[in-house]
Design brief:
Number of helices: 9
Oligomer: single chain
Order of helices and strands: EEHHHHHHHHH
Largest sheet: 2 strands, antiparallel
Length: 197
């Protein structure tokens, strides 16, 4: 059995990790929503979610350095991997938020695990995700997304283009991008009103 981390230690202080995979998925969503515009606030939110109020207070009161906590936080969310391990030039073939339905179906078919009821460590969730069979819904979707179009012609090419389009990941906008879009639309409305007068 794998010995997944349950605590972190910073400057001699020990903090329990909220290890539930849903918390880590929520952290992923917080990072995506805030982007780089709210880096400090995002960091504090992640520290609170994963390591609790005591750890957050110690960071805010400078009892422990935020840089040390963030280094551990990244390592935890990346399941023990380093930034170098994660460098990948390929387009992502999976998105936790968009693909959760496929992930749930795959866990049920491959492991008979109902993710809506199961409490599972984040690292265990990732281990299971990596171990999904080629017959699972998620891996069939990933196969289509990752299949290169090079060398395909005619009807085969058209079929692959249509399949890829059907399962393509949608680009999500950050809160800042949404704010700028709204601002642009409001300005355009004002311009249209000016032109029609």
């Amino acid at each position: 059995m794998n010995d997944y981390p349950k605590y972190i230690q910073v400057e001699g202080k020990k903090y329990a990790i909220n290890t539930d995979f849903r918390v880590a998925l929520n952290c992923d969503e917080i990072v995506r929503q805030n982007g780089e515009s709210k880096e400090y606030e995002t960091a504090l939110a992640l520290i609170y979610k994963l390591f609790g109020e005591e750890c957050l207070d110690d960071v805010l009161n400078e009892v422990i350095p935020i840089d040390s906590v963030l280094k551990i936080l990244k390592k935890y969310l990346w399941c023990g991997k380093t930034e170098e391990d994660l460098v990948n030039d390929k387009e992502p073939s999976m998105d936790f938020k968009q693909d959760m339905g496929y992930i749930r179906a795959s866990f049920m078919s491959d492991y008979q695990i109902d993710l809506s009821k199961e409490k599972m460590h984040w690292w265990q969730f990732n281990d299971y995700l990596q171990g999904l069979t080629e017959h699972s819904a998620m891996n069939r979707i990933r196969y289509v997304r990752e299949e290169p179009l090079k060398g395909k012609k005619g009807e085969e090419l058209q079929r692959w283009i249509e399949m890829k389009k059907a399962v393509a990941l949608k680009a999500e906008k950050t809160e800042e991008q949404k704010r700028l879009d709204k601002l642009f639309q409001e300005r355009m409305k004002k311009e249209v009103i000016k032109w029609t007068k």
